[in-house]
Amino acid sequence: MSGCIWKFSQYLDDEDIMFAHRIFVSYKIAGEYYGIGEKPMIRMAWASGAVYKVGKKVLIKREIFEEYLRQHYKQVDKLIEGDEDELLKKFEKRAKEEKSNG
Q: Looking at domain 5-101, which CATH architecture does it have?
């Protein structure tokens, strides 16, 4: 195996291995794998910048989307740990930046 996936092989099943081989996935496949509904999946994919359109086909680049999930997971962990004020400031700052940019 290439990369470092072998380090976690005891935790992976066949579905994880097959999913790891894919570079691009559809909304449906990603939603089923991550356990996310269709509309939240679409919103998060567009927010992460991982969406690629080829004609009418819409695909999500898995690496970009997973990095987005990791970033947001870390933010949720901080919220759970009681760092609400700092996290709220970050979200407000990001919202102001997005509003001024677009």
A: Orthogonal Bundle (1.10)
Residue range 13-67, pLDDT digits in tens = 677 677 777 789 888 888 888 888 888 888 889 999 999 998 999 999 989 998 8
Q: Report CA torsion sign: 95, 98, 101, 102.
A: negative
DSSP codes, 17-64: HHHHT-SEE-HHHHHHHHT--HHHHHHHHHHHT-EEEETTEEEEEHHH
Q: What is the pTM of this model?
A: 0.59
Residue 64: Cβ-neighbour burial (10 angstroms; 0-12, 13-18, 19+):
middle
Distance CA 28, CA 32 (A): 6
Give which of 19, 77, 67 is closest to 44, Cα–Cα. 67
